[in-house]
């Protein structure tokens, strides 16, 4: 009986976690909606400006974070290892500076909210008035 209760509770948690959706967020001064292609270009440093012309500041969660993995699977199509290699080349050749990394979605949201032109990604359930949703991949 206890095993069944634990199994049911575990399945409820898994279902709740898997129903969460990652969204790309921006500072409220960045009201532009983005296409998947525009988001990909921003996150791969192929575009350094938002569609409205504002310079973009890219924020990432730390490697291994499930939200980071989900976001990049949906937007850039790259794994953590591929991203590390990609960014190492860009930084080494001087073509770009690595994005700021944050240890949590809370820190990511705070950084985006505090910087005009900043973008990041968090769980859709964590969106509040301090940031705007730019893309639901």
From TrEMBL:
This is Phosphate ABC transporter substrate-binding protein. The lineage of its organism: Bacteria, Pseudomonadati, Pseudomonadota, Gammaproteobacteria, Alteromonadales. Residues 1-20 form the signal peptide. Keywords: Signal.
